[in-house]
Amino acid sequence: MRHLTSEQFREALGAFRGAVRDWSEDQARGVIAMEPAVPQRRFWTPARQFALALVLAAACIVASAVIPRHTDNAPASDAVLLNQVDVQVSRTAPSSLEPLLKLVAQE
Amino acid sequence: MAFPATSEMERAVPTDVVQDFETLVRLYRPKVFRFALASLRDVDAAETVTQDCFLRAYQASGRFREECSLQTWLMQIAVNLVRDHYRNRRFQFWRRANATAATPADRVYATIADGARSPEAQALLKEQVAAIWEAAGKLPERQRTVFLLRFVEDMDLVEIACATGMKEGTVKTHLFRALRAVRARLGGAA
C-alpha cells in the first residue's frame, strides 16, 4: 500500500469534485435528451376526433341519399312472390309427377 | 404531500425569488440534481428527488425566514428527500446502482485534460477518483451526505450543519470519519 500525502489527497479530492460535476451534467443532459423521444402530441386530438365524426356523419347522409331505396317496389314484389307460393301450394303433386297423375285420373 | 417535519425548513423564500420561481429552479436545479445523483446513483431517482425538492420548496415558499441561505435551504430539503428515498428503496437502490455503467471516473480525462499531466499521472488520478467514488458509496448514510456536501458541493461546515440538521461538531465528526475511510481506500489504490 502506497502512502498518500495530504497534497496528493487534496488533488484527488479536487479531481473527484470535477469528475462528479461533469458526470452529473452528462447524466442531466441524458435526461433532457430523452424527453423529446416522448411524443409531444397525440395524433387523435379532440379536434381531429371531431373532424372525423363530422366526416362520418356527412358520409352517412350522402349514402342515405344516393343509395336507391326499394320500399316502393316492395308491395309488387310481395304479390308476385305470394302468387308463386300459392301456385306451388295449390298443386296436389310436384310438376314432375303431373303426367303420372293424369294417367291415374284416366284409369 | 407532507412537508418534511423539520423546523429549520419552515422558512419563507424572499419575495422576489417567489415571484420568479423559474429563476430559482434554473439557478439551483443542477446543484440539487447533482447531490441527489451522487447520493442515490440513479438518474431516475435523482430526477424524481429534484422535482420533488422544488415542489416542496414552492409549497413552503411562504415560510422561509432566511436563517440560512436559499441554497442551503434547498439542500436541506434535498437531503431529507434523499434520506427518505434511500431508506424506502434501499434494496432497489443497490440493485440499480450495480447496473449503472458510467461513473465519475469515466469523466476524469475530460476534466483534467490540461496537457500538464503525463498519461501515467492521468491514469493514476482516474484510479484515485474511482476509489473515492467506491469508498463514498460504502460510507454510512450521514457520513456520505456530509462528504458529498463538503467535497462535491463545496459547502462549509455551518452550511452543512444547517442542511443536515446536525450540530457543527457532529458534522466535523462525520466528515473526519468519512475522510479517514476514503483515504484508507485511496491509499490502497494509489
Tell me what you see in this structure.
The complex is a heterodimer of chains A (107) and B (190). By secondary structure, chain A is mainly α. Helices cover 71% and strands 0% of the residues of chain A. Chain A has four helices and no strands. Chain A has helices spanning 6-34, 46-66, 74-90, 98-106. The longest helix of chain A is centred in the N-terminal third of the chain and has 29 residues, at 6-34. The radius of gyration of chain A is 46 Å and the shape is rod-shaped. Residues 34-39 of chain A have low confidence and may be disordered. Chain B has 190 residues and is an all-alpha fold. Residues 1-13 of chain B have low confidence and may be disordered. The A-B interface holds A 1-4, 8-9, 11-13, 15-28, 30-31 and B 30, 33-34, 37-38, 43, 46-47, 102-108, 110-112, 125, 128-129, 132-133, 151-152, 154, 183, 186-188, 190.
List keywords for this structure.
heterodimer; A: 107 residues; mainly alpha; B: 190 residues; Rna Polymerase Sigma Factor, Chain: A; Arc Repressor Mutant, subunit A; 2 domains; 72% helix; globular; disordered N terminus
| Helical residue percent band of chain A | over 70%
Say what oligomer this is. Answer: heterodimer
Unreliable segments of chain B (pLDDT under 50, ≥5 consecutive)?
1-13
Under the CATH scheme, the architecture of the largest domain in chain B is Orthogonal Bundle
CATH superfamily of the largest domain in chain B: RNA polymerase sigma factor, region 2, helix turn helix motif
Largest pleated sheet of chain A: none
Question: What's the order of the H and E elements of chain A?
Answer: HHHH
How many helical elements of chain A?
4
Percent in strands of chain A: under 5%
Write down the CATH class of the largest domain in chain B.
Mainly Alpha
How large is the share of residues in beta strands of chain B?
under 5%
